[in-house]
Protein backbone atom coordinates (compact mmCIF):
# COMPACT_ATOMS: atom_id res chain seq x y z
CA UNK A 1 0.00 0.00 0.00
CA UNK A 2 1.48 3.34 -1.04
CA UNK A 3 -0.34 5.34 1.58
CA UNK A 4 -3.24 5.08 4.02
CA UNK A 5 -5.43 8.19 3.91
CA UNK A 6 -8.10 6.93 6.26
CA UNK A 7 -7.38 9.49 8.97
CA UNK A 8 -7.57 12.62 6.84
CA UNK A 9 -10.59 14.81 7.46
CA UNK A 10 -12.96 14.84 4.52
CA UNK A 11 -11.89 11.40 3.24
CA UNK A 12 -13.46 8.04 3.92
CA UNK A 13 -11.44 4.91 4.71
CA UNK A 14 -9.34 4.54 1.58
CA UNK A 15 -6.06 2.84 0.69
CA UNK A 16 -3.96 3.74 -2.34
CA UNK A 17 -2.06 1.07 -4.30
CA UNK A 18 0.25 0.92 -7.30
CA UNK A 19 -1.05 -2.21 -9.05
CA UNK A 20 2.14 -2.60 -11.07
CA UNK A 21 4.11 -3.30 -7.90
CA UNK A 22 1.62 -4.33 -5.23
CA UNK A 23 -0.72 -7.29 -4.88
CA UNK A 24 -4.31 -6.51 -3.96
CA UNK A 25 -6.54 -9.39 -2.88
CA UNK A 26 -9.31 -10.25 -5.39
CA UNK A 27 -12.18 -9.19 -3.13
CA UNK A 28 -10.73 -5.68 -2.86
CA UNK A 29 -11.23 -5.03 -6.59
CA UNK A 30 -14.97 -4.49 -6.11
CA UNK A 31 -14.10 -1.48 -3.94
CA UNK A 32 -11.82 0.28 -6.44
CA UNK A 33 -13.09 3.81 -6.91
CA UNK A 34 -13.75 5.53 -10.22
CA UNK A 35 -10.71 7.51 -11.48
CA UNK A 36 -12.80 10.70 -11.40
CA UNK A 37 -13.30 10.44 -7.64
CA UNK A 38 -9.71 9.38 -7.01
CA UNK A 39 -8.28 12.33 -8.96
CA UNK A 40 -10.45 14.72 -6.99
CA UNK A 41 -9.68 13.19 -3.59
CA UNK A 42 -5.93 12.73 -4.01
CA UNK A 43 -5.33 16.05 -5.78
CA UNK A 44 -6.95 17.95 -2.91
CA UNK A 45 -4.75 16.35 -0.26
CA UNK A 46 -1.54 15.18 -1.98
CA UNK A 47 1.01 16.09 -4.59
CA UNK A 48 3.88 14.24 -6.27
CA UNK A 49 7.49 14.88 -5.43
CA UNK A 50 10.61 13.34 -6.96
CA UNK A 51 12.57 11.44 -4.37
CA UNK A 52 15.50 9.02 -4.29
CA UNK A 53 13.62 7.27 -1.48
CA UNK A 54 10.66 6.61 -3.80
CA UNK A 55 11.97 3.15 -4.61
CA UNK A 56 10.61 2.04 -1.23
CA UNK A 57 6.96 3.01 -1.00
CA UNK A 58 6.70 5.23 -4.11
CA UNK A 59 6.31 4.80 -7.83
CA UNK A 60 8.33 5.80 -10.90
CA UNK A 61 10.74 7.94 -8.87
CA UNK A 62 7.95 9.87 -7.13
CA UNK A 63 6.34 9.88 -3.73
CA UNK A 64 2.90 11.08 -2.71
CA UNK A 65 3.30 13.96 -0.28
CA UNK A 66 0.59 15.28 2.01
CA UNK A 67 -0.41 18.92 1.41
CA UNK A 68 -0.17 21.00 4.59
CA UNK A 69 -1.45 24.55 4.46
CA UNK A 70 -1.31 26.11 0.99
CA UNK A 71 -1.41 23.82 -2.01
CA UNK A 72 1.77 23.90 -4.15
CA UNK A 73 1.31 26.30 -7.09
CA UNK A 74 0.53 23.79 -9.85
CA UNK A 75 -0.95 26.44 -12.12
CA UNK A 76 2.20 28.57 -12.22
CA UNK A 77 4.89 25.94 -12.04
CA UNK A 78 5.50 23.88 -15.20
CA UNK A 79 7.22 21.17 -13.21
CA UNK A 80 4.27 20.91 -10.84
CA UNK A 81 1.87 20.84 -13.76
CA UNK A 82 3.80 17.95 -15.28
CA UNK A 83 3.76 16.07 -12.00
CA UNK A 84 0.02 16.62 -11.62
CA UNK A 85 -0.52 15.36 -15.17
CA UNK A 86 1.64 12.31 -14.40
CA UNK A 87 -0.42 11.63 -11.25
CA UNK A 88 -3.75 11.94 -13.07
CA UNK A 89 -2.50 9.79 -15.95
CA UNK A 90 -1.41 7.07 -13.53
CA UNK A 91 -4.89 7.11 -12.00
CA UNK A 92 -6.72 7.14 -15.35
CA UNK A 93 -4.72 4.16 -16.65
CA UNK A 94 -5.37 2.08 -13.54
CA UNK A 95 -1.79 2.01 -12.28
CA UNK A 96 -2.68 3.96 -9.16
CA UNK A 97 -5.97 2.90 -7.56
CA UNK A 98 -7.84 3.81 -4.42
CA UNK A 99 -9.74 1.10 -2.57
CA UNK A 100 -12.52 2.47 -0.39
CA UNK A 101 -14.20 0.14 2.09
CA UNK A 102 -16.91 2.22 3.73
CA UNK A 103 -17.69 5.12 1.47
CA UNK A 104 -20.28 5.86 -1.17
CA UNK A 105 -23.41 3.87 -1.73
CA UNK A 106 -22.53 1.57 -4.62
CA UNK A 107 -23.70 2.56 -8.11
CA UNK A 108 -22.40 2.35 -11.66
CA UNK A 109 -20.34 5.54 -11.44
CA UNK A 110 -18.42 5.59 -8.16
CA UNK A 111 -17.55 1.87 -8.05
CA UNK A 112 -16.94 0.73 -11.65
CA UNK A 113 -16.34 -2.97 -10.87
CA UNK A 114 -18.54 -5.80 -9.61
CA UNK A 115 -17.82 -9.45 -8.84
CA UNK A 116 -20.30 -11.86 -10.44
CA UNK A 117 -21.60 -15.02 -8.79
CA UNK A 118 -18.87 -17.19 -10.33
CA UNK A 119 -16.12 -14.89 -9.01
CA UNK A 120 -15.57 -13.06 -12.31
CA UNK A 121 -14.87 -9.32 -12.21
CA UNK A 122 -16.55 -7.03 -14.74
CA UNK A 123 -16.99 -3.32 -15.39
CA UNK A 124 -20.54 -2.14 -14.74
CA UNK A 125 -20.39 0.96 -16.96
CA UNK A 126 -17.61 1.14 -19.53
CA UNK A 127 -18.91 4.48 -20.85
CA UNK A 128 -17.59 6.24 -17.72
CA UNK A 129 -14.05 4.82 -17.70
CA UNK A 130 -11.24 4.39 -20.23
CA UNK A 131 -10.79 1.03 -21.99
CA UNK A 132 -7.14 0.90 -20.96
CA UNK A 133 -8.17 1.42 -17.32
CA UNK A 134 -10.71 -1.42 -17.49
CA UNK A 135 -8.37 -3.86 -19.23
CA UNK A 136 -5.48 -3.11 -16.88
CA UNK A 137 -7.67 -3.65 -13.79
CA UNK A 138 -9.11 -6.89 -15.19
CA UNK A 139 -5.60 -8.12 -15.94
CA UNK A 140 -4.44 -7.30 -12.41
CA UNK A 141 -7.51 -9.09 -11.03
CA UNK A 142 -6.71 -12.27 -12.97
CA UNK A 143 -3.17 -12.25 -11.59
CA UNK A 144 -4.54 -11.78 -8.07
CA UNK A 145 -6.96 -14.71 -8.53
CA UNK A 146 -4.07 -16.96 -9.59
CA UNK A 147 -2.32 -16.03 -6.34
CA UNK A 148 -5.23 -15.99 -3.86
CA UNK A 149 -8.13 -17.83 -5.54
CA UNK A 150 -11.58 -16.64 -6.64
CA UNK A 151 -13.41 -14.17 -4.36
CA UNK A 152 -16.97 -14.25 -3.11
CA UNK A 153 -19.49 -12.30 -5.23
CA UNK A 154 -20.38 -8.68 -4.58
CA UNK A 155 -23.46 -8.24 -2.42
CA UNK A 156 -25.21 -4.90 -2.83
CA UNK A 157 -28.61 -3.30 -3.34
CA UNK A 158 -27.22 -1.98 -6.61
CA UNK A 159 -28.12 -4.23 -9.56
CA UNK A 160 -25.68 -3.90 -12.50
CA UNK A 161 -26.92 -4.69 -16.00
CA UNK A 162 -24.60 -4.75 -19.02
CA UNK A 163 -24.76 -6.49 -22.39
CA UNK A 164 -22.76 -9.38 -20.89
CA UNK A 165 -23.81 -9.52 -17.21
CA UNK A 166 -26.92 -9.06 -15.14
CA UNK A 167 -29.86 -10.67 -13.30
CA UNK A 168 -31.71 -13.45 -15.09
CA UNK A 169 -32.71 -17.10 -14.93
CA UNK A 170 -31.48 -20.53 -15.95
CA UNK A 171 -33.16 -21.53 -19.24
CA UNK A 172 -33.05 -25.19 -20.26
CA UNK A 173 -31.35 -25.81 -23.62
CA UNK A 174 -31.34 -29.59 -23.68
CA UNK A 175 -31.68 -32.80 -21.67
CA UNK A 176 -28.74 -35.03 -22.55
CA UNK A 177 -29.75 -38.64 -21.90
CA UNK A 178 -26.86 -41.06 -21.49
CA UNK A 179 -28.12 -43.52 -24.12
CA UNK A 180 -25.59 -46.35 -23.93
CA UNK A 181 -25.40 -46.30 -20.15
CA UNK A 182 -29.18 -46.09 -19.81
CA UNK A 183 -29.77 -49.03 -22.16
CA UNK A 184 -27.61 -51.20 -19.91
CA UNK A 185 -29.53 -50.13 -16.81
CA UNK A 186 -32.87 -50.77 -18.50
CA UNK A 187 -31.76 -54.28 -19.47
CA UNK A 188 -31.07 -54.96 -15.81
CA UNK A 189 -34.46 -53.48 -14.88
CA UNK A 190 -36.11 -55.70 -17.49
CA UNK A 191 -34.49 -58.78 -16.01
CA UNK A 192 -35.79 -57.97 -12.53
CA UNK A 193 -39.34 -57.31 -13.77
CA UNK A 194 -39.77 -60.54 -15.76
CA UNK A 195 -42.06 -61.88 -13.03
CA UNK A 196 -44.59 -59.04 -13.45
CA UNK A 197 -47.14 -61.00 -15.47
CA UNK A 198 -49.47 -59.06 -17.70
CA UNK A 199 -47.46 -55.82 -17.51
CA UNK A 200 -45.88 -54.19 -20.52
CA UNK A 201 -42.22 -53.26 -19.97
CA UNK A 202 -41.60 -49.47 -19.79
CA UNK A 203 -45.17 -48.91 -18.60
CA UNK A 204 -44.02 -47.99 -15.09
CA UNK A 205 -41.38 -45.68 -13.65
CA UNK A 206 -39.39 -48.52 -12.07
CA UNK A 207 -38.47 -49.74 -15.56
CA UNK A 208 -36.33 -46.58 -15.92
CA UNK A 209 -34.81 -46.77 -12.42
CA UNK A 210 -31.24 -45.44 -12.13
CA UNK A 211 -31.16 -44.07 -15.68
CA UNK A 212 -29.40 -40.70 -15.87
CA UNK A 213 -29.33 -37.46 -17.83
CA UNK A 214 -27.67 -34.05 -17.75
CA UNK A 215 -29.96 -31.02 -17.80
CA UNK A 216 -28.11 -28.29 -19.70
CA UNK A 217 -29.12 -24.73 -18.83
CA UNK A 218 -27.96 -21.25 -19.85
CA UNK A 219 -28.08 -17.98 -17.89
CA UNK A 220 -30.44 -15.68 -19.80
CA UNK A 221 -32.05 -12.24 -19.35
CA UNK A 222 -35.39 -12.25 -17.54
CA UNK A 223 -38.22 -13.48 -19.80
CA UNK A 224 -40.35 -10.69 -21.33
CA UNK A 225 -43.64 -12.32 -20.30
CA UNK A 226 -43.00 -11.63 -16.60
CA UNK A 227 -45.46 -9.11 -15.15
CA UNK A 228 -43.98 -5.90 -13.74
CA UNK A 229 -44.40 -6.89 -10.09
CA UNK A 230 -42.60 -10.22 -10.42
CA UNK A 231 -39.97 -8.73 -12.72
CA UNK A 232 -39.12 -6.03 -10.18
CA UNK A 233 -38.92 -8.56 -7.32
CA UNK A 234 -36.75 -11.05 -9.24
CA UNK A 235 -34.58 -8.22 -10.61
CA UNK A 236 -33.66 -7.13 -7.05
CA UNK A 237 -33.17 -10.61 -5.61
CA UNK A 238 -31.43 -12.34 -8.51
CA UNK A 239 -27.73 -13.17 -8.48
CA UNK A 240 -25.56 -11.56 -11.17
CA UNK A 241 -24.04 -13.85 -13.78
CA UNK A 242 -22.59 -13.66 -17.27
CA UNK A 243 -25.28 -14.13 -19.92
CA UNK A 244 -24.56 -17.31 -21.85
CA UNK A 245 -22.93 -19.02 -18.85
CA UNK A 246 -23.92 -22.68 -18.84
CA UNK A 247 -24.37 -25.33 -16.21
CA UNK A 248 -25.01 -29.08 -16.35
CA UNK A 249 -27.02 -30.77 -13.61
CA UNK A 250 -26.62 -34.53 -13.37
CA UNK A 251 -29.94 -36.24 -12.59
CA UNK A 252 -30.96 -39.82 -11.80
CA UNK A 253 -34.43 -41.31 -12.23
CA UNK A 254 -35.51 -42.53 -8.79
CA UNK A 255 -38.58 -43.08 -6.64
CA UNK A 256 -38.98 -40.25 -4.14
CA UNK A 257 -41.45 -38.60 -1.80
CA UNK A 258 -44.37 -36.83 -3.47
CA UNK A 259 -47.07 -35.17 -1.40
CA UNK A 260 -49.34 -34.89 -4.43
CA UNK A 261 -49.79 -38.66 -4.96
CA UNK A 262 -52.05 -41.02 -3.07
CA UNK A 263 -49.27 -43.27 -1.77
CA UNK A 264 -46.85 -40.34 -1.18
CA UNK A 265 -44.31 -41.60 -3.73
CA UNK A 266 -43.55 -41.06 -7.41
CA UNK A 267 -40.75 -41.58 -9.93
CA UNK A 268 -38.80 -38.37 -10.54
CA UNK A 269 -35.59 -36.93 -11.93
CA UNK A 270 -33.44 -36.24 -8.84
CA UNK A 271 -32.37 -33.58 -8.00
CA UNK A 272 -35.46 -31.84 -9.29
CA UNK A 273 -34.75 -28.80 -11.45
CA UNK A 274 -37.30 -26.62 -13.21
CA UNK A 275 -36.93 -25.95 -16.95
CA UNK A 276 -36.90 -22.25 -16.01
CA UNK A 277 -34.99 -21.91 -12.75
CA UNK A 278 -34.40 -18.67 -10.87
CA UNK A 279 -31.35 -18.21 -8.62
CA UNK A 280 -31.51 -15.74 -5.74
CA UNK A 281 -28.89 -14.19 -3.49
CA UNK A 282 -28.21 -16.05 -0.27
TrEMBL record:
Domain DUF8093: 14-154
Top-level lineage group: Bacteria
One Pfam family matching this protein: DUF8093
InterPro entries reported for this sequence: DUF8093 (IPR058406)
Name assigned to this protein: DUF8093 domain-containing protein
Organism in which the protein naturally occurs: Buttiauxella selenatireducens
Amino acid sequence: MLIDISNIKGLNIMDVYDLRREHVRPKEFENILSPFFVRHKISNYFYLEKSIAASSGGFDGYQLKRIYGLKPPFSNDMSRQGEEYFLHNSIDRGYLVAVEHFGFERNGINYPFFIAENGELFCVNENHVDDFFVNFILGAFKSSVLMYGKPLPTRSNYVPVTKDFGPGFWRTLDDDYHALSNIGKMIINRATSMGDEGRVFMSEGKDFMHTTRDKIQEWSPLPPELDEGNRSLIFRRSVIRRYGERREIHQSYLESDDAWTQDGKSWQWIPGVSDEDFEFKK
